[in-house]
Amino acid sequence: EAAIPFHGARQSGLTGPQLPATRLLAFDLPPNSPAADRAALRTLLADWTGLLSATAAGTPPDPRLRGDDGPPRTASLVGLGPALAARLALAVPGGLAEPPAFPGDRLDPARGGGDLLLQLSAADPWTLAVLTELAGAAAHSAGVVPRWSQSGFLPPTRPGATPRNLFGFKDGTANPDEDAARQWVWGPPGPHENATVLVYRRIRMDTAAFAALPAERQEAAMGRRAADGAPLTGTAEHDEPDLYAKHPDGAYVIPATAHVRLTGPRLDGGARMLRRGYGYDDAPDDRGLLFAAFVRDTAQFTRVQSRLAERDALNPFVTHTASAVAYVLPGAPPGTVLGAQLLG
Ligand code: HEM
């Protein structure tokens, strides 16, 4: 399969397919003078650009990344936390507000937030580990300190097919096409049109309890079928869910508390988010979903999560344990460095 180029209008972590192994790394920039902090950030983004572009191009700086089997595929995403952007008075757009607390949240601050967010993805865990080491060394040299890191994975999936989450359902079916994404995911025309905003939630899933439900209860909670991801009102994965369809007894086919009903764009003036989640498995009682949604404004997430927190049929089986928000930089076109627009 073809390499995913690092350089381009958008960052590689959002242009290509989701690679199966991922790691989110969050860092803090200990406060100094704004000028020194900007300089440290500029150095780090230049170092990361060098490392990630050379690796993606098949000319990595470290022999362990060469691969016996040809150059490994990698992709990456860099974002800035709202507090850092404010502290350094960077010209980021609005829409970066942290979501409020929701009922049921059990957020661990040590696993969330951060000044800088780096998502590294690779076709295999070895490449991911080496790339993580090198990116972390660059951060260390720039005086940037690790805050948290989280690894995740996807099941083996045919190219173009939707991966499943640990409840066994296809996850990512109803993502926006390019036209809808231009309106709801990417920034407006101007300096931020290839930038977006990440809302990350680490969501623990009680997979055993969910698996113990009869198949029809699972599908009613989701509003889709487990086997093929089709809505309960349709026959194929990409059929539009019909939220008005009723059974002869008057009950909705897609129940009132079904996840797909509460998250659908109809309740939100058509608003959409681009979801690129991963599974995680950190301990026998701590596995679940690394929910990663890309939006123009975190308010889009907050509206949906407010409804979910109140009545989502998945609630008995899920707990949000960490949260982070980041301004995802536009890509670096060839010959340029990530973040140049903001830092000069
Ligand atoms: C759709 C799973 C949490 C927003 C879906 C679908 C599944 C799913 C299986 C249907 C297939 C698809 O379109 O991708 C889960 C699980 C979650 C979770 C297991 C927690 C562990 C969330 C959260 C949000 C969210 C926290 C946002 C606040 C959405 C949206 C859709 C969706 C916007 C698409 C709805 C549509 O346009 O039809 N989710 N989800 N999900 N989910 Fe979630």
From TrEMBL:
<keyword id="KW-0349">Heme</keyword>
<feature type="domain" description="Dyp-type peroxidase C-terminal">
    <location>
        <begin position="162"/>
        <end position="331"/>
    </location>
</feature>
<dbReference type="GO" id="GO:0004601">
    <property type="term" value="F:peroxidase activity"/>
</dbReference>
<keyword id="KW-0732">Signal</keyword>
<protein>
    <submittedName>
        <fullName>Dyp-type peroxidase</fullName>
    </submittedName>
</protein>
<comment type="similarity">
    <text>Belongs to the DyP-type peroxidase family.</text>
</comment>
<feature type="domain" description="Dyp-type peroxidase N-terminal">
    <location>
        <begin position="11"/>
        <end position="153"/>
    </location>
</feature>
<keyword id="KW-0575">Peroxidase</keyword>
<keyword id="KW-0408">Iron</keyword>
<feature type="region of interest" description="Disordered">
    <location>
        <begin position="55"/>
        <end position="75"/>
    </location>
</feature>
<keyword id="KW-0479">Metal-binding</keyword>
<keyword id="KW-0560">Oxidoreductase</keyword>
